[in-house]
Amino acid sequence: IEWMMKSYQRAYGLDFVAFRYFNACGADSQRRHGQKSGATHIIARVLESIRDDREFVLNGDDYPTTDGTCVRDYIHVEDIADAHIMAVDRRMASDVFNLGTKSGISNREIVAAAEKITGKKLKICVGPRREGDPAMLTASADRWNKISGWNPRFGLEDIIEHAWKWYVRN
Question: Which CATH number fits the domain that encloses residue 120?
Fold first, then answer.
């Protein structure tokens, strides 16, 4: 898509800003919008398993990470929205930016945060790794931060709390 936007910009002079999201998650803090049930990413799967009192399959615990589970960079949907608003307000020249927190969160850390926020214990079964899953994947938003002053406002517990409130309500 980025190359198509660049081609369109060259052909028609329309500037764009593209963001590469790294694991967008959470829900609107006012509970107006959130993830649909049946999502495949880990936060949704953990929260749905807790809500529905189902066993959760943790895909792999033998990765070369601190706790043996995959590490990813999670960013709240409102932080993503803030970045988009800033880009529109600044009327920037065309560019592409990563949006991430630079800090990775492991699957076990997600489970622990979900149990803390919900006050419920998750039934876990360790399954095989998902084919092709890298051990760690994080992103730096340093370029976007330097240009805009943007920093993510929400951490893991906020992400889980907002998503949980959405799941309970819907």
Answer: 3.40.50.720
